[in-house]
Amino acid sequence: MILLNPFGAIGRAILGLLARIGQVTLFALVALRHVVTPPFYLREIGQQLIAIGWLSLPVVGLTALFTGGALALQIYAGGARFNAEAVVPQIVAIGITRELGPVLGGLMVAGRVAAAIAAEIGTMKVTEQIDALRTLSTEPVKYLTVPRLIAATISLPILVAVGDSIGIFGGYLVSTSRLGFNEAAYLANTIDFLQLWDVTSGLIKGAAFGFIVALMGCYHGMHSGRGARGVGRATTQAVVSASILILATNYLLTEAFFSA
Description:
Elements: H1 5-35, H2 42-53, H3 57-79, H4 88-126, H5 129-135, H6 140-177, H7 183-193, H8 196-222, H9 227-258
Helix pairs in contact: 1-6, 2-6, 3-4, 3-6, 4-6, 4-7, 4-8, 4-9, 6-8, 8-9
């Protein structure tokens, strides 16, 4: 029996994971049903667009700027081994728009927004404000979750587009000021190499990541434990689960978009 204990622990962990996946899936389906049914809380959606989108712009912009500069330095150093330094503009552009822009933008927003959503909704649950909403005949998922899902799904592609521009600009600054690239040639190579699908695929990823961030924040907030410890645990779980799902979804979307 002692030898079977590890297998029992593994089995319980797997069953717990499957149960959690089922709960999240049902929560997402309920939220999506409420997205397309009235009433629509437009004021709440507007407030969340500002909180999630506008207020996340500085951190996303700074992340993209330094990432673009560092990427240019790394590509130049690696390309120098094969006399291929001239590919810096092209690789920076495709790396930012396809991968680094949406992924890093999603992760930064997850750290900021998923934690805030989980903490806010978890605190509302602890202080019985969610029960008060039900008493007032207001569906908590409709009032709390749906505006955040809509706002995050709309905001993140816009943040990704802005981050792509800033990231490419960061690579341009480093390449022209530190690596000796000609300004006009750098911009020409970037424009000639980029295709519409490179940018569009990143924006689609951004929309998916925004939905994941808001979903994880709302789910863990709604299911947080009692007290400060429960809210803190929900906040941590929201960020971790959102980050892992973003990375996993990024692989699946990349496989679907570019496997051919």
